[in-house]
Amino acid sequence: MQEDNESVDSWPIDPLIEARHYYWEAGLMVFTEKYHRSRGYCCGSGCRHCPYDHVKVKQP
After folding, report:
1. Chain-centre distance of CA 60, in angstroms?
2. Which element (helix H / strand E) includes 39?
3. Cα→Cα distances 22→9, 29, 47, 52, 60, Å
4. Which of 2, 21, 23, 32 is exposed most, by the fewest CB atoms within 10 A?
5. How far apart are CA 31 and CA 21, in angstroms?
6. Is the model's pTM score more than 0.90?
7. Structural domain spans, the chain
8. What integer pLDDT is reported at residue 7 of this predicted model?
9. Which regions in the chain score pLDDT beneath 50?
10. What pLDDT does 6 receive?
11. In terms of Cα–Cα distance, which of 59, 23, 38 is closest to 51?
């Protein structure tokens, strides 16, 4: 999925826009890189499109 990462949306994002902020895969909502950049930090959940190198993800 190609993302336009030139700009971010103001946080909190309301409403979320499908294909811009998320998409569905196997019944699960997957947040896009644009969504994460708008958030501004790694949440630690190991998200697929995290632009922050998963810095808060705890190692097993």
Report:
1. 22
2. helix 33-39
3. 13, 6, 12, 17, 27
4. 2
5. 6
6. no
7. 14-60
8. 83
9. 1-2, 5
10. 62
11. 38
Buried b (16+ CB within 10 A) or exposed e, 20-53: ebbeeeeeeeebbbbbbbbbeebeeeebebbebe
- Give the span between the Cα atoms of 17 and 56, in whole angstroms: 26
DSSP-derived secondary structure for 1-14: -----S--PPSSPS
What backbone torsions phi and psi does residue 22 show, to the nearest 5 degrees?
Answer: -160, 165
Give residue 51's pLDDT: 97
The predicted pLDDT at position 2 comes to 47
Amino acid (one-letter) located at 34:
K
Average pLDDT, the chain: 91
8 A C-beta contact, residue 1 and residue 30 = no
Ranges of beta strands (E only) in 1-60 are 22-25, 28-31
